[in-house]
Amino acid sequence: PRLKPWLHRIDKPALLIWGAADRILSPAYREGWSKALPLARSVTIPGAGHYPHWEQPEAFADAVCAEE
Fold it and tell me: Is this model's pTM higher than 0.85 or not?
């Protein structure tokens, strides 16, 4: 909630990587951040929760390295 007021300052491409089973941040956060960051691309990683970089490191790396 404290991050949202600052998102409008970001004018660079961003990548939002979300765990499909995240129980800390709901999909509503991802949707709100996606709207606030018009240059953002969003990726949801199946089988991951709040820490997709630990829980699904290969899928996380694939998302980071993927061409848009």
Answer: no
